[in-house]
Request: fold
Amino acid sequence: MVTTTDSDPVQYEIFPSRMLDPSSAQEILNRLEQIEGVTRVLVQGPKLPLTVPYGPGKGAPVDHTAREVIRVGDQVMELQVKVGRIRLESEHDVMEEIRALCEELFPFPFELKEGLFLRRKATVTDYAKYGPDELVEDKSIYGMTDPSMTPSSKICESCTDTRE
Amino acid sequence: MAYTPQYYPGSSSVAVNRRKHMSGDVEKLRTVSDDDMVAALGHRAPGADYPSIHPPLKEMGEPDCPIRQMVEPTPGAAAGDRVRYSQFTDSMYSAPSVPYFRSYYAAINFRGVDPGTLSGRQIVEARERDMEQQCKATIESEMTCPALAGLRGCTVHGHSLRLAEDGMMFDMLQRTHLEGGNVIEDKDQVGVPIDRKVNLGKPMSEAEAKKRTTIYRTDGVKYRDEPEVLDHVHLVHHRRTMYGYRPETAAETAPGVGPVTYHTV
Reply:
């Protein structure tokens, strides 16, 4: 069981009723980044493959228009998912700021929930990926990666690979 | 007086649409050329002959069989076509049709088809030209909205996901996209690019989709608001459970007992 205290960071999940286009995702991620106290943001959604993964057309290029390069703050990254949810962590309560932001940006309904969405403790998978907990310098990496990602892939250029 | 099957109980728009799909009395909304549809299916090149797996039945000399004499072969079977498939996916967000009613439509209104019904997709296997005839009728009718339904041979999981901002059902392989207000298909049903843009027409508006849908939803026509359907489903379930393959032996529906009402919790 995870116990929380007043000093623990709070986590939110934004669940829009439509999947977001890359431009909308870029807009909201940039605006979220400007909210004071937000430390971690994760986007989740169905994966957009580069090639047809299975079936008679296996290997054919997909060229999905939602797989676009977006810029968030000073980071440039290629979206590998169609953005369906945004999970974020903040050092203090920013619920109302996020709600106002979503109401401003989304022309469709959305859900905003507070809860525990990004894990705080290392799992066995994290141990396999990053090594023993005491050797991991940046523990904010936990829960921020695609569980099925290949060992060579990185979230962004500034993420350091702490595996030996 | 000729017997007219009722097909499905209920009085709401969803029940009416379900009856329409089953009876085949569906409205034609768009026209897709034969070549465009053949390209979208991806089984043969547009304009090419139908490959065959056996000589035409007339040349084969069939055995003396009363069933074969009674049943006229479909055009595809008579010509010896290959068996090929078409597969559709329908979004849970008020798509006009659903797998079950696509299967009813195919099985009731077409000969020589083998419909397969799954939770998120519906496949029809048949001799190639029979399958194309059925597929064309389905695509051109009100059973298909190009944004909320799609010809997908694989990767159908978009049916259960939220729609995109432009109202299109999610497709990992992006076989269709919006272009100038029309839905364009530029890949075949398994995601291989084709050398043409198949125009599937304009997507249905949200109100239009809700009017034509066969899906009971809490934000549309609610299943619980349809007592006749609930009663009928309950009756079928009860008889199937209690009397197996002999529902006519059900004691409560024996002569003299009178009508039985089932109360759904």
Remarks:
- The two ends of chain B are 39 Å apart (CA to CA).
- DSSP finds nine helices and seven strands in chain B.
